[in-house]
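User: What would this chain look like folded?
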Amino acid sequence: MRDNLKTSFRSFYLSPSDKFKVTSDAHHFVLSYEIYVSGRRKNNNVYKCKSWKLVDLESLILDVKYEFNSDNVRLYNKDLILAEGAIA
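Assistant: Here's the prediction, encoded as structure tokens.
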């Protein structure tokens, strides 16, 4: 985690939605944990918590990024295809 604190890795995001995650005007916090693999038990990793942080989001400066996405079912709907063909 200490190395990650100095990177531009996106660790928090908020997306507009019909079921918006933030529904009230109130203090909002993030509780984060630094997790590490302390060993193995059979074929599974054993994880332990090394440290934690409680972050107040009230003064967090955000970038706004609108995201458009679709799936292949909607993208390749026959009503949207203008032309197509096979390549020999």
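The mean pLDDT is 82. If you want, I can go into more detail on any region.
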